[in-house]
Amino acid sequence: MNVALEINNTYENFELAKDIMYFRVGDRGLVSFHGKNYHIKKRLSSDQMNELISDNFFFKVNTDCYVNLKKIMRIQDGRVYFEVKGTESRYTTITKLRQYRLKEIWQQQQKPREV
Known about the structure:
The protein is α+β, with helices and mostly antiparallel strands and 115 residues long. It has helices at 2-12, 16-19, 46-53, 96-110, and strands at 22-25, 30-34, 39-43, 58-62, 65-68, 72-76, 79-82, 91-93. Residues 18-99 form the HTH LytTR-type domain.
């Protein structure tokens, strides 16, 4: 019984920056969050949506999709690949125009900070 409660809490109380690889914005405030092994759809208010979109953890890769900068493994051939262990890689597509800018931002974050 405790296991079921823990799973339920994971789906209801996920942390965007830590748990979500990317999300897609749909009609009427419906947002689809994509994690390692799950997809969660939630309806958000316009204020919640604006806060989510303006978050520095996420980058807009096309008209309705935002990726988590901390979860990116590589950017290649119009795709953004995410950290997934095993043989399967999760990815989402990115427009060529935004691919160059995302690579710049992502590489700046990857550089070790000088002390």
